Amino acid sequence: MVICRYRSELKQEWDEFIENSKISHFMFFRDYMDYHCDRFKDFSVMFRDEKGKLIGVLPANIDSDTLVSHQGLTFGGFLASKELKTELMIDCFSELLGYLKGEGINKFVYKRVPYIYHAQPSDEDLYALFINDAKLIRRDMSSAIYLKEKIKFSSQRKRAVKKSEKEGVVVEKVDDASLVWGLISQVLREAHGVMPVHSLEEIKLLKSYFPKNINFYLAKYNSKSLSAIVTYETSNVVHAQYLASNEEGKRLGALDAIVSLIISSSENSKLYFDFGISTEKDGLLLNRGLIHQKEGFGARAIAHDFYRIDF
To answer: What is the bridge-based pairing of β-strands 279-280 and 272-277?
Structure first.
């Protein structure tokens, strides 16, 4: 087995591998990973067999003496070919840890990809983590709806959707990020004192790279914007990357109307609607009100696990 660092001239090979791997997500394509390359020191790794064939990649960056997979992504981890089996995954981890030691790196933080994003069974990494004495250091709780056997909306969520319909709230899919970004920025600033992770320019750039994967939804009443959702979509999952609703939007059930529309329009093409996490302080604090709202739509828990190997 041969391990090498990713280099820009390997972009096409990397992207082609991601497209056909057992976990294919557009966030792992280099155009997505590299849009914020100035913020992270990339240390992505590629694994080849004895014939030179690419069998796996690890999106990663260096933070001091720690390899992280990857701080600029929601989750990361080992992305394997469909041919890679358990014994070979163990070998990949063994070779990687030896390689990292030689580079003066002594910690490895692994942000595992939740199973709903797996195109094929892909738990080989869990076993490799286990036998390398990896410690679970964080667990965020996300919430997802299994669209093939949906749990019914709670009475509260049903009332909110009906209210939005009665009041004449209009939901539309829009192409211009500018139409939703002001509302999202305002709600995040007023409610949490933060701004979106992406700037307007960045989300426009990413939309231009991935027009089918990144989508914007807006709910309006009398031409006034009330609520918005930005989705990240893969072959199996539609994920709510950003959700925002102003006070009038909450009163009129505008966000509920968008969620209801996305669910109904996705149930024949996707397996899951993923709301994202409802935890803070490295998973130790559960936002009970937030998760209650998501579970009211029929969502149930999905774990986002973080592991660390010290060596």
So the answer is: unpaired
Is residue 98 located within the same domain as residue 240?
A: no
Instruction: Report how far apart the first and last C-alpha atoms of the chain are (Å, whole number).
Output: 21
Q: Are residues 179 and 150 in the same domain?
A: yes
Cα separation values, 166 from 161, 162, 177, 239, 264, Å:
9, 6, 28, 27, 19
pLDDT of 112 reads 97
- If asked whether residues 85 and 185 sit together in one domain, one would say no
Q: Which positions ≥6 away from 165 have C-beta within 8 Å?
A: 257
For residue 256, pLDDT beyond 90: yes
Are 191 and 126 members of one domain?
no
Using the 3D structure, point to which of 102, 132, 162 is the last residue of a domain: 132
Residue 207 has pLDDT above 90, yes or no: yes
Mean pLDDT estimate for the chain: 96
Looking at the predicted structure, is the pLDDT value of residue 192 above 90?
no
Strands across the sheet containing 237-245: 41-42, 61-63, 66-69, 107-111, 300-310, 135-146, 272-277, 237-245, 224-233, 214-221, 170-174
Shared domain check, 164 and 76 = no
CATH number at residue 112: 3.40.630.30
Q: Is residue 36 part of a domain?
A: yes
CA distances from residue 38 to 35, 59, 61 in whole angstroms, order as listed:
8, 16, 12
Q: What is the pTM of this model?
A: 0.94
| Comparison of pLDDT for 131 and 192, the residue scoring more | 131
Q: Domain span at residue 66?
A: 2-132
